[in-house]
Design goal:
With 127 residues, the protein is mainly β. 0% of the residues lie in helices and 50% in strands. It has no helices and eleven strands. The strands form two sheets. Strands 2, 4, 5, 6, 9, 10 and 11 form a seven-stranded mixed β-sheet that branches. The chain is globular and about 40 Å long.
Length: 127
């Protein structure tokens, strides 16, 4: 089993920054990839960013590319999402997710790829 706990959400003005953290515990040696997803009010859950646990390959949604950076600290078993130049449309509950090695390709954009999820942390960007 793998447990995920997010932190770092809050209220920020447009143009500001926040750094989210996802602390991972349990069978971390079995992890393949980590993702951040978000769900805004009245919206579907959407992919934000992903990173492979061992190699550190990163992937981003077009809407956040150039503004958000995903990273991981394997020693601390933590994945981060640095969010800069925040916009009101970034307002959402942000959740991290983890997957063990996929049997097929790593479909990092798809929530169904991930078997483990955190509770989520609220990010609110005021205009």
């Amino acid at each position: 089993q793998v447990q995920l706990v997010e932190s770092g959400g809050g209220l920020v003005q447009a143009g500001g920054s926040l750094r989210l953290a996802c602390a991972v515990s349990g069978r971390t040696a079995s992890l393949w990839g980590m993702g951040w997803f978000r769900q805004g009010p009245g919206k579907d859950r959407e992919f934000v960013a992903a990173i492979t646990w061992s190699r550190g390959s990163t992937y981003y949604a077009d809407s956040v590319k150039g503004r958000f950076t995903i990273s991981r600290d394997n020693a601390k078993n933590t994945v981060y999402l640095q969010m800069n130049s925040l916009k009101p449309e970034d307002t959402a509950v942000y959740s991290c997710a983890a997957t063990t090695p996929p049997s097929g390709g790593y479909y990092y954009r798809m929530p169904g790829t991930y078997g483990y999820w955190g509770q989520g942390t609220q990010v609110t960007v005021s205009s």
